Amino acid sequence: MFVWLGLFFLLLFHYLPMFGIIIAFKDYKISTGIQGIFSSPWAGWKHFEAFFNDYNFNNLIRNTLALSFLKVIFSYPVPIVLAILLNEVKNQFFKRFVQTVSYLPHFISWVVVSGIAYTFFSADYGIVNDLLMSSGIISRPLDILTNPDSFWGFAVSSAIWKEAGWWTIIFLAAVTGIDPALYEAAEIDGAGRIKRILYITLPGLKGASIVVLILTIGSILGGGLVGSNFEQAMLFGNPLNSDTSQIIQTYAFNVGLAEGRFSFATAIDLMQSVISVILIFASNYIAKRVSGSSLF
Amino acid sequence: MRRGRKRTTEDWILDTGITVLLLLISFVTLYPFYYILIMTFNAGTDSSFGGVYLWPRAFSLDNYIYFFDDSRWMDAFGVTILRTVIGTALGVGFTSMVAYGLAKKDLLLRNAYFIFVIVAMNFSGGLIAFYVVLRSLGLINSFGVYVIPSMLNIFFLLIAISFFREIPEELGESARIDGASELRIFVRIMVPVSLPLMTTMSLFLGAGQWNSWLDSAYFVQSEELRTLTYRMMQVINQSMMPTSGGAEASASMARLSVTPLSLQATAMVVSIVPILCVYPFLQRYFVSGMMIGSVKG
Q: Nearest residue on chain B to A268, judged by CA atoms?
């Protein structure tokens, strides 16, 4: 009985929306409700063509891909490094303290992170600008939050700040799984600590690294492991930096729910899914070639 | 490991370097929170002159007085607490119940069910189609939209299934012979046995509910149903816009030396504190929970 309830639930909230995708090929009006999904007139590829010809199209694709890939490239190594550093700490209390602190931001909403970001980096009242100005390092406030050139960097660093500590958990667990006898043997053979890190700790992390890499790749367009591209683009994006901060998802949201062009927005959503599937297959293929293991 | 051996220069440099680096990381992580905290205890009008970095300069509780006096913030606070409690209870209860059913080894068509679940996890109809479904179910602009669609969490469903599989069949079997119903077996036997799982799930679903703002932004229009995080987002956006810097400023604010900025900081502190109180104590649970999740990948 539990099973039936569960499956009914999936049907309702997951499969029904999936069938709803066909409104991308129709002229759907919200007033017709759920029956409208099936009864509204077909529109063929009209909405897709409209998207391809949209003057935002190139920008959107570029921003979506850039944000996704930059985040993976820069954020992926951070937890590994952090885990190695933590593993070298002898003082258990200090180690625990740093760890607990480092994953605090994971539990905090992106909204709060954006609030903190504004408090620190705003050109009008941010304390970073305040400090830099009063110490004479810069003469004009930095416009990190509104400058289109700094959006990607800012999104990537804030994502690392928020999530790196969290993913360290997995790597740290993998490090503790390494046989201590290996270290002792290496020490007797005269290997220094750096050598031991390079030749024992790092190879010991290989398994965990691959698992995490595969997880990252599976969700790359969503922002990989380090948080939601959508929430970041929504919260850090503003009219001034929209050249680089507008991504496919936020655009679909704006034209869909805000402007009420439901079919058009669904077509954009669908495009995003298609790109995402292509990326998953491509990176899975690369992972297989490079490391010998893969998702499927 | 290194007992009885003299520390080399390499050891010394490495230890110092690592300690300094980790202290720096801790500082960069903690200071923003600390800064927000002192802002809330400093008079907003005073903070706007800048220069408050380490402790409150003009100590004042006005921000909190204003915050807890404002019915809109209090409404949002209430909605958030309510959705966290109800949403977490429903999510944990329903997800683990379905998982218990799916974990049965003698279930017919089990593989078919699995494919059904996996497909649902990896593909979605996108926001608009989801919106249409919610609308037809009458969930738009109701409290239900916060807690009903999130009742079944697929990620935790998979984790819970693998957890229940590890539990020996005999445990439920003897109760079944004694005539206990499945529901009774689940509540009386399975729930106590799977307490670590339930705790992990509660923490994650609870944090998700507490922090959620997207559903409040998309699916709800009436003001009294907005969540705390959503309100915060609104205020941050307002103070972000250079033209309307003080859109929320009002007479009562001025009387209490509260500024939109200090109010925003207060809201953030109010939303962070409950998380801060809970998460360090549940550490061992979520660390092991993470491990199950990653192994199942």
A: B126
